[in-house]
């Protein structure tokens, strides 16, 4: 490593800044850069260890800093996020001989084990009754097809925004999910930009089946869209966005959220978000008895544990229903056995 960039007297904060922006984040997505940049500026740049020279940096100084953060009310999860920057930076310092050894592994993240907090549920699917009311409320809405597609395919908002007509196989009745659209801050340009890139996880690249009813509506929606934009001299080709604004560009996520909130309110549905349409899809699948592995694949989750952890409440309800079904089966078996016993001759009974 160039000696001008780092010496043993270099402040730790300055070294972390170099590693973060010139090494770690060089090839990362804007959204990832924004997340790391926020953590660095809020927790590391002006921290007690920021001005400590590398040659004077010790495990105790880092540990004391983490402990002070925790005592001041910073959560364990946030400190873990900070550590995802600090730990590899320390490792990089050791690998480039700026410090004698990598001591990052011995740093302990403080955790309050005396208080068990009940997590706020993040999954708020529509009940069947709410779903019925919602579908009535969105009838003939400009974004009716967007909402229905979200609710009956489980695509993420960013995946829906990036969807083009080439991604829809009408003959095969599937949607090919291979990209997502997201607006995030570009820390190099210091402004927010929209970027279409790979979806959230490797498994998010997937084929999702389209129910026949939704497929029929999508075909008609495409015809209507072509007629609408033809008036403005715009041809709807295969690379045209399936769900766009009035000028054929990407939908604004904030406007989408505001719009759907008003629809929810109009039909008495409380505490729901656009994203909950995706959760509604997964919940209906579980209620219909679909296997968790299949749901994982359809949702594009990274692994089965994400699916099981996300839909714990739904799965618990299904366990109770399964128990009731088994109990009903058991009672039927006993009833059948008793009936058989009654039909037996006295000499045949045990």
TrEMBL record:
Q: What Pfam families does its record include?
A: Phage_int_SAM_3, Phage_integrase
Q: Which CDD domains match?
A: INT_ICEBs1_C_like
Please provide, alphabetically and separated by semicolons, the GO molecular function terms listed in this UniProt record. DNA binding
Q: Could you tell me which residue ranges the Core-binding (CB) domain spans?
A: 10-94
* A biological process term (GO) from this entry: DNA recombination
UniProt keyword list: DNA integration, DNA recombination, DNA-binding
> Is DNA-binding found in the keyword set?
yes
The lineage's top-level taxon is Bacteria
* Ranges where the Tyr recombinase domain occurs: 121-325
Question: Which family is annotated?
Answer: Belongs to the 'phage' integrase family.
Q: What does this protein do?
A: Site-specific tyrosine recombinase, which acts by catalyzing the cutting and rejoining of the recombining DNA molecules.
Spell out the protein name for this chain.
Transposase
Q: Which organism is it from?
A: Acetobacterium wieringae
- Whichever gene encodes this chain, its name is int-Tn_3
């Amino acid at each position: 490593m160039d000696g001008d960039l780092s010496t043993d007297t270099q402040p730790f904060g300055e070294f972390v800044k170099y590693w973060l922006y010139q090494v770690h984040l060089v090839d990362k997505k804007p959204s990832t850069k924004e997340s790391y940049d926020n953590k660095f500026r809020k927790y590391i740049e002006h921290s007690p260890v920021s001005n400590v020279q590398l040659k004077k940096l010790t495990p105790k100084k880092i540990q004391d800093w983490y402990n002070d953060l925790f005592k001041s009310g910073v959560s364990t999860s946030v400190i873990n996020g900070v550590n995802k920057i600090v730990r590899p930076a320390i490792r990089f310092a050791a690998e480039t001989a700026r410090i004698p050894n990598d001591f990052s592994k011995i740093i302990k993240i403080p955790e309050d084990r005396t208080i068990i907090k009940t997590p706020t549920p993040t999954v708020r699917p529509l009940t069947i009754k709410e779903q019925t009311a919602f579908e009535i409320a969105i009838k003939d809405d400009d974004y009716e097809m967007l909402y229905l597609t979200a609710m009956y395919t489980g695509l993420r908002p960013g995946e829906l925004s990036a969807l083009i007509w080439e991604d829809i196989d009408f003959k095969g009745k599937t949607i090919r999910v291979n990209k997502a659209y997201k607006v995030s801050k570009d820390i190099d340009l210091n402004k927010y930009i929209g970027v279409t890139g790979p979806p959230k996880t490797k498994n998010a690249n997937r084929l999702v089946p389209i129910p026949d009813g939704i497929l029929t509506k999508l075909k008609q929606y495409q015809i209507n869209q072509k007629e609408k934009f033809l008036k403005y001299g715009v041809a709807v080709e295969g690379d045209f966005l399936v769900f766009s604004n009035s000028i054929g560009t990407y939908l604004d996520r904030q406007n989408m959220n505001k719009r759907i909130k008003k629809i929810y309110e109009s039909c008495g549905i409380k505490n729901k978000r656009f994203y909950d349409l995706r959760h509604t899809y997964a919940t209906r699948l579980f209620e219909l008895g679909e296997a968790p592995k299949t749901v994982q694949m359809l949702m594009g989750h990274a692994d089965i544990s994400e699916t099981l952890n996300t839909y714990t409440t739904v799965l618990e309800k299904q366990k109770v229903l399964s128990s009731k079904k088994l109990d009903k089966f058991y009672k039927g078996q006993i009833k059948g056995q008793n009936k058989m016993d009654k039909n037996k001759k006295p000499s045949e009974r045990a």
